[in-house]
Amino acid sequence: MNNIWTQAALAPQAALAQAPEGQELTSEQDPVSTTAEPGTPAQENTNNKGDIWSMLKSMWPFFAVLIVIYFFMLRGPKRKQQEHQKMVQSLKKNDRVRTIGGILGTVIDVRGDDITLKIDESNNTKIHVIPSAIAAVLTDTANAK
């Protein structure tokens, strides 16, 4: 039905008069053709390119949110993990450290995945912790406070 109305609006009155009564006017019978000639791109193909471009333009907020998620949720923790790994690798004997459990101690030995801490000077009490248990290396200024 839509085909009849669009062609009727485009076709001149003389072309409509040529159609027999009771028969619909089709594109084969239309003397004034609105289709593209062979070898030229159809009008629908050019419209599809515009539709894709408009769809991509409308999706830019989605891409912006993905970038923000990357920087805040993925990049931040990764950078923090790298800083912690650098701190643990730079540990040496006699460094004062604080563990994630709040234990203060002095590094005695660092061997791969085992760090030995001296936590009591009078009793010579030592504990073994894994590198991820070290929360911070305390500096001399932090000890003075």
Describe the structure.
With 145 residues, the chain is α+β, with helices and mostly antiparallel strands. It folds into two domains: 2-53, no CATH class; 92-144, SH3 type barrels (Roll), CATH 2.30.30. 46% of the residues lie in helices and 20% in strands. Strands 4-3-2-1-5 form a five-stranded antiparallel sheet. The radius of gyration is 39 Å and the shape is rod-shaped. The model has no long low-confidence stretch (mean pLDDT 77).
Q: Return the average pLDDT rounded to an integer.
A: 77
CATH fold category name of the largest domain: SH3 type barrels
Distance between the termini: 87 Å
The Rg value, from CA coordinates, equals 39 Å
What portion of residues is helical? 40-55%
CATH class of the largest domain: Mainly Beta
Biggest sheet character: 5 strands, antiparallel
Structural class: alpha+beta
**Count of helical stretches:** 5
Spatial order of the strands forming the largest sheet: 4-3-2-1-5
Number of strands: 5
Q: Beta-strand level of the residues, as a percent range?
A: 15-25%
Output the helix-strand order: HHHHEEEEEH
- The CATH architecture of the largest domain comes to Roll
Domains counted in the coordinates: how many? 2
Uncertain stretches of 5 or more adjacent residues:
none
What is the approximate shape?
Answer: rod-shaped
